[in-house]
Amino acid sequence: MKVLVTGSSGHLGEGLIRHLDGLGVESVGLDLKPSAFTTRTGSITDPDFIDGCLAGVDAIIHAATLHKPHVATHSRQEFVDTNISGTLNLLEAAVRHKIKSFIYTSTTSTFGDVLRPAPGEPAVWVTESLTPLPKNIYGVTKLAAENLCRMFSRNQGLPCIVLRTSRFFPEDDDNRYKRDAFDDDNLKLNELLFRRADLHDMVTAHVCALEKAPELGFGTFIVSATSPFQLQDAARLAIDMPSVVARYVPAYEQIYAQHGWKMFTSIGRVYDNRLARDTLGWQPEYDFGSAIAALCEGKEYRSRLARQVGKKGYHDTEFEDGPYPVDETPEMDHGHDR
């Protein structure tokens, strides 16, 4: 199999190329930015360029995108051009070249405002049946591209899998209030409980999707670390998260005390990855429990792949207030997810 990976200079793209190479799978890396993992430098907005990259290719993993941190630095039209028109160009080329599997990297940001429960309401239990309500141009364009994938699968018979990925970037948080309130490792460990995954697991989810796409035809899956929480915990998580975490992973309290870390007081959502595990045969290896176990043994909690890829950033410019040009609205409590 020969796989085209778009966004090959980014976190996920580099991780995919490294992993595919390790499996002995030939890959073609495509990106606007040159890197050691990019073999074709150009834009997905150029249909002729895409055609030139697809000779002998059997499958496409489309990870290239404008991300949420670009919302303040790029126009809405640029988001439309890259995230919608670029995806359309790839889908049309995939049909012409008789591609066997098309994997689209989407985002849990498509859910948008449905992830913010009203005061007093339980945390939102996020499954694939939840109706998205994007809150910015990033979410809108990613959802539109998902629908293009669905249309091409239904009308052109192109096997497409959409993966709604949670956070996996190693960069500092894009919310200044969280950056000020939490140590970076503390923040990312907390998020592993409900809205983050290790890069290794993100990569293996894409590989599983590659294999399953011809059989499934189409599917949309949430990809996040396996949460220890159950649906019946949703109400408690909205008011007293530490007590729920202690019930499932009691060892966390000692590790957090040793590092001077703190748990969120409450959260507003939990991503449920069960469908991806059951349908794609995906077996994520990294979660909050494994991270605490590693720290108890004095080991690194991140995967080797995540450490190899490291930080990349989203902009070539440093901003006055930190790594991003804008921040989220202040939250009710620095420990709140919502």
**What is the mean predicted local confidence, pLDDT?**
93
Q: What's the CATH class label?
A: Alpha Beta
CATH superfamily: NAD(P)-binding Rossmann-like Domain
Count of separate DSSP helical elements: 13
Shape: globular
Q: Rounded to an integer, what's the Rg over CA atoms?
A: 20 Å
Helix residue percentage: 25-40%
Report low-confidence residues grouped into runs of 5 or more: 329-338
Largest sheet: 7 strands, parallel
What is the count of distinct domains? 1
| Estimated share of beta-strand residues | 5-15%
- The SSE order reads EHEEHEHEEHEHHHEHHHEHHH
Structural class: alpha/beta
How would you sum up this structure, described in words?
With about 350 residues, the protein is an alpha/beta fold. The protein has one domain: Rossmann fold. The protein contains 13 helices and nine strands. The protein has helices spanning about 10-25, 45-55, 75-95, 135-155, 175-180, 185-190, 200-215, 235, 240-250, 250-260, 275-280, 290-295, 305-310; strands spanning about 1-5, 25-30, 40, 60, 100-105, 125, 160-165, 220-225, 270. The strands form two sheets. It has a seven-stranded parallel beta sheet, with helices on both faces. The radius of gyration is 20 Å and the shape is globular. Residues about 330-338 have low confidence and may be disordered.
Task: Summarize this structure briefly.
The protein has helices at about 10-25, 45-55, 75-95, 135-155, 175-180, 185-190, 200-215, 235, 240-250, 250-260, 275-280, 290-295, 305-310; strands spanning about 1-5, 25-30, 40, 60, 100-105, 125, 160-165, 220-225, 270.
